[in-house]
Design goal:
By secondary structure, this protein is mainly beta. Helices cover about 15% and strands about 45% of the residues.
């Protein structure tokens, strides 16, 4: 009996030691994200995380967002209500990581991380918001206007082609949001 107890204790201690040592061949989440350019991160959520990277005026931009699908739903004015702050994606708040200062809507946006929110309108320009609280796990439910760094009006266009998944890409003229038939360009330089 004493031998059995000794073997059991050695097994438990060994198990604890091995479970505390990370496998050096496994990639960490941040390493996986750094290796992706506009690719979906593997997860089980219906709206997977996407990290888009690019350069505007030789300055790096990285965008993190949840990419929901249309799934036959009515989006504008229904799933995404008009005149209400929207997290511009799904899951956590969409955010940008700017490597340098940018000029946005004629105003300076310093290097750093910012959440992006939009206020869709039934007609006319939409409001795009850069907010200093970028790490919001519940998106627009934690949004606080007092942390807005920059607000601007952006005129959306609606195209013939429909995109099933929301995308936020770094491309000329800055960041372009597309979903369903929406195209919302945010000029940055």
């Amino acid at each position: 009996m004493k031998t059995f107890q000794t073997i059991l204790n050695i097994g438990l201690v060994s198990g604890l030691l091995f479970s505390c040592n990370p496998n050096p061949t496994e990639s960490t989440e941040s390493e996986m994200m750094d290796d992706q350019t506009a690719e979906m991160k593997a997860d089980d959520r219906p709206s997977p995380v996407v990290i888009a990277k690019g350069k505007i005026s030789e300055k790096d931009i990285k965008v993190h967002y949840g990419s929901p699908a249309v799934k036959g739903r009515a989006l504008w004015g229904d799933l995404v209500p008009y005149n209400i702050v929207w997290r511009t994606g799904a899951n956590e708040a969409t955010f940008v990581d700017l490597s340098a200062d940018f000029i946005v809507d004629g105003r300076s946006l310093p290097a750093g991380k910012y959440s992006i929110f939009t206020i869709p309108k039934e007609s006319g320009p939409w409001i795009v918001i850069f907010n200093s609280e970028w790490d919001l796990e519940h998106g627009h439910f934690q949004y606080d206007e007092k942390n807005d760094v920059l607000r601007m009006e952006v005129t959306p266009t609606f195209t013939e082609n429909s995109e099933e998944r929301l995308s936020v890409k770094v491309e000329n003229p800055g960041i372009v949001i597309r979903w369903e038939k929406l195209k919302l360009p945010i000029s940055m330089n």
